[in-house]
Amino acid sequence: MNKRTTLLLSLILLLAPLCAQDITGSWSGSLKIQSSSLRLVFNIEKGDSTLISTMDSPDQGAFGLPTTRTSFKDDKLEIVASGLGILYRGNLEGDSIIGTFSQGGIPFPLTLKRATEPLIQRPQTPVEPLPYISKEVIITDDSTDISLSATLTLPDSTGVFPAVVLIAGSGPNDRDETIFGHKPFFILSDHLTRNGFAVLRYDKRGVGKSTGDYSKATIKDFVYDANNIVDFLKNRNEIDGSKIGLIGHSEGGIIAPMVAAENTDVKYIVLMAAPGTKGIEIVLDQNENSMKYNKFEPETIERIQILNKEIFESLLEWTGTENDRTALRDKLSYLWEQLPIMFKLKIEKEPYLRAQFNGMITPGYRSFLATNPEEYLNKVTCAVFAINGGNDVQVPAEKNLSAIKESINNRGNTNIVTKLYPQLNHLFQQSITGQPDEYAKIEQTFSPQVLSDITLWMKRQVELLSYPTIN
What we know:
Layout (H helix, E strand, L loop, with lengths): L24 E9 L2 E11 L4 E7 L4 E5 L2 E5 L2 E6 L4 E8 L2 E8 L2 E9 L18 E9 L4 E9 L6 E7 L16 H11 L3 E5 L16 H16 L4 E11 L2 H11 L3 E7 L6 H15 L4 H18 L6 H17 L2 H6 L2 H12 L2 H7 L4 H4 L5 E7 L7 H13 L6 E6 L26 H14 L10
Parallel strand pairs: 12-13, 12-14, 14-15, 15-16, 16-17
Antiparallel strand pairs: 1-2, 1-9, 2-3, 3-4, 5-6, 6-7, 7-8, 8-9, 10-11, 11-13
Helix pairs in contact: 2-3, 4-5, 5-6, 6-8
């Protein structure tokens, strides 16, 4: 799912920036790792009362990676990316930030200086002024004491509009679902708002301006949050409460039907690259794709997949005891021994095993493994538009679209349309291989054809073909 990459790939280094005099902007530096150097760029924006930061790692082809918390006080910067086990601490000294970057507890010195040249251009990203209303809103919940920060866009200041909530995929996603410098949810929101829809997109709990702890969140928590957002929209004067829908991408395509299965206020859902098969099966498919792409021998793939399945199934029974932790470490160490020698020469064993262990035991990862989409898809009674790219290597298109349609039809709901786009990848970019290492290199963020298809299908559902378009 956008950002739930295969377990056999090493975690991408991530980070972010700071503030003081005026710290906003981009700061760059080089991380020295053994005999190599890795460029990092940290982009800082100032919100209403907090700093928001993303990171670029151009040498790895990674741009716009989000962090979970950024603070700056008394010339001291602290940046946390809890989903990746990253911490950066530095002091502003003159025109430099001198500090330490840590991932998985391993520290590296890192000095940052202001970057003057943007590293990447994304021509589809909307540019202000925008021809519609954009509001910063907060969705609060007294029972959890969590506040979700969001952007609500409205076609104009006088109408009452159908509305849609954008639900991002796995990982600590911000409201734009920023990845590799792309902002697909900003582009999707912009397109839909120009075509008569109110759109709400939000920072996940514990990400950006939202409160809470992302590292402890499960899929059920994200479903709870999405339900609260639907309730929030239903009670706003600008929103037609009888015409609220959801768009879920990747893991968000799990959350959207889970909400729709129980919440009758949801009248239509769009599932973009959504899983239709069990969580364990999705991750096994991702691993198999990665190993084939990295040219593992067939017998090695078969052997490792048996071990992977055993590990994933054990995580379904995880209680966090010392026995559980010891058993998982032993299984991962044994798996390491099965990897090809050329793979092991590229990455050190202990950091690799530590990163795998820490990622696997998170509540979010384990809750994903435990999902069975059939259990809630066959309870969905509203209209469904399920789409995927033929080059998607994270959620294989034909297999999952077929499973979604079968589950939806299972109890008599025939109001579903599925569509496969041959050359599009998991992010709905025009692609060649569809592999994650291609995402950052592609200039296009979002296929215009998919934007058009989603909009037309949604208009049909809410009988809005006569709505004026804002140019």
